[in-house]
Amino acid sequence: MKTYKIAVIPGDGIGGEVMTEGIKVLDCYASLKGNIKFAYETFPWGCEYYLKTGKMMDDDGLEKLKKFDAILLGAVGFPNVPDHISLHGLLINIRQSFNQYINLRPVKLLPGAPCPLKGKGPQDIDFVVVRENVEGEYSGVGGIRFPDKPEEIALQTSVFTRKNTEKVMEYAFQLAEERNGKRKLTNVTKSNALNYSMVFWDKIFNETALKHQDIQTETIHVDAITMYFIQKPEAYDVLVASNLFGDIITDLGAALQGGLGFAASGNLNPEGEYPSMFEPVHGSAPVLAGKGVANPIAMVWTVKMMLDFLLKVEADEIITAVTQLLQEGESLTPDLGGTATTQEVGDAICGKLAKLI
Amino acid sequence: MKTYKIAVIPGDGIGGEVMTEGIKVLDCYASLKGNIKFAYETFPWGCEYYLKTGKMMDDDGLEKLKKFDAILLGAVGFPNVPDHISLHGLLINIRQSFNQYINLRPVKLLPGAPCPLKGKGPQDIDFVVVRENVEGEYSGVGGIRFPDKPEEIALQTSVFTRKNTEKVMEYAFQLAEERNGKRKLTNVTKSNALNYSMVFWDKIFNETALKHQDIQTETIHVDAITMYFIQKPEAYDVLVASNLFGDIITDLGAALQGGLGFAASGNLNPEGEYPSMFEPVHGSAPVLAGKGVANPIAMVWTVKMMLDFLLKVEADEIITAVTQLLQEGESLTPDLGGTATTQEVGDAICGKLAKLI
Lengths: 357, 357
Ligand SMILES: CC(C)[C@H](C(=O)O)[C@@H](O)C(=O)O
Ligand SMILES: CC(C)[C@H](C(=O)O)[C@@H](O)C(=O)O
Description:
The structure is a homodimer of 357-residue chains.
Chain A: E1 2-11, H1 15-33, E2 36-42, H2 47-53, H3 61-65, E3 70-75, H4 83-97, E4 102-108, E5 126-132, E6 136-145, E7 153-161, H5 162-178, E8 184-189, H6 197-210, E9 216-221, H7 222-231, E10 238-241, H8 243-256, E11 264-268, E12 276-280, H9 297-311, H10 316-328, H11 342-356
Parallel strand pairs in A: 1-2, 1-3, 3-12, 5-10, 8-9, 8-10
Antiparallel strand pairs in A: 4-5, 4-11, 6-7, 11-12
Helix pairs in contact in A: 1-9, 1-11, 5-6, 7-8, 9-10, 10-11
Bound molecules: 3-isopropylmalic acid (IPM) (2 copies).
InterPro entries (chains A, B): ICDH/IPMDH, IsoCit/isopropylmalate_DH_CS, IsoPropMal-DH-like_dom, TTC_DH
Enzyme class (chains A, B): oxidoreductase
Protein name (chains A, B): D-malate dehydrogenase (decarboxylating)
């Protein structure tokens, strides 16, 4: 029996409610499989904590988190706390300090999930975005000169290193090889306008491609890709994108797969030198908080990604269980046209799992 | 009789073919109205010119262009010429040198145009994006340190000035006031991650909002807006975005309005210290070039934007003519399911105009 230690950060708003269901599904999965166990420790960090203590997480927070096998995050964000404080203080801090240089985001339309596009279905929308996650546009480098004067200037510098970019590209090519897909990797760029960073990015992509000649490659500008996602999502299998571009196209991807209620992500340190962190892409949605109406599917999908990563499995039973729920149409939250509570959805998924495992 | 001097840069690929139809429609419009005339001078600049001369445009190109009332551009780009060369040498050079600090892009689904979204129609998709067009992410500031060494680093710096940002915001608020719409302005940001440039951007937005309290405002992150464009395009009226974000969301917008065949733009110097430049958003599409199949509607719409700007009119007859074509379904190019040539579409639009003006 192997026990995995999970650091749980429910965070703000609906974070805690969906987290409860995520853990419920983890525990059901573990007890049905029989040979694994999860031990949790919960950290009360986030914006409420900040309003009380002036800190998004404890000073030795990273030290504490380091001991865990993985981190599960609910959602961070609160109306009274400026986003750039809450995020640089917790989410972006953990991503960068733990060198979680890959942000993996599947975009997959499940049968029964609402698709906004005419004439497209689950067979057309099934790709994964490999997003660079520790540098690039999110490096936090910059400044303001002559603040509030007429000659005020704001500077923000993207920083891309060869070392990290090579690792991201290599990861993406290997994923394209391992995935049972089109064996195709799409490079998302904007080298026609960003004449240093993205020209560099393309160069590393092309260098890495030479080592993976079995993978079909293409390079597409980020503006064009947003259009193609609408017009021909079936053209994509694995995409590799910078931190900012990956952020943008995965929110668009979330819309294609039925909304943020379905968007899961993993912030990975593939070598395991530090714990990886798993989080649903939806935010804290303060207006929904405390009502028991938040859709926990993204969190449950996130848990599946954690299982895949930690146990080196494909915990596809979880996706099957969610698909069954969608197809039956009962046990769905209001955003999906149902009347179930967050908790009832979690219970229903466990019920399905019990028959599938 | 007033004569307007137009500099014509057909450019590469399909640029010349659609330009011919654009000019045809301009001339019909002028002769039907009776009191205006256009005088053209054509410049052979672009990638073919570059391959012959090593230059995208003449050394004194800007000097030459300066004398015109406006510039009409077809498309620039060619497989053999790296994009960052062709664009920084011509398109981006003209935008920045002529201080065309506004890039205006209407996103409007015409009745009869193909919409990719379920349950949305022309009444839902009708907004305009005000894109900053001379600085920001496109400033071209940056460099590579330790080229090709393991420690190689690429830097790209976004530069935002208060002076220009204030002008862009002011323009956007005024447009929201003048437009017969929802009197709403949406600020597109990413201040949760870009902790200097976009925090600054939001600050100037909020300052400018104080002078326009009659306009409803909201601030939305660029990732989220791509999702909302799919889920609720009807929520938008005027949006203001940085150079890069405006680029991305207007390509997505183009998809919503039926594709690049419908996407027009104006690069404006509102004060008229320099000529403004009008261009369809589609590229040079080398594979379609020379076949007479390119859809000229985006170019014709671009001409309408030039008329609006130069003559201070609303040349809506042109949009009505295009809508009639779409609704009748004849005289459309193959991308819209028709069999007409580029030239036949131009002729048909002029035919309609003759009945409308
Ligand atoms: C909250 C924000 C900083 C974050 C990001 O931009 O990475 C979020 O949008 C995401 O996609 O995880
Ligand atoms: C060609 C490219 C540099 C340009 C841009 O990014 O501005 C284009 O995409 C546009 O939208 O006009």
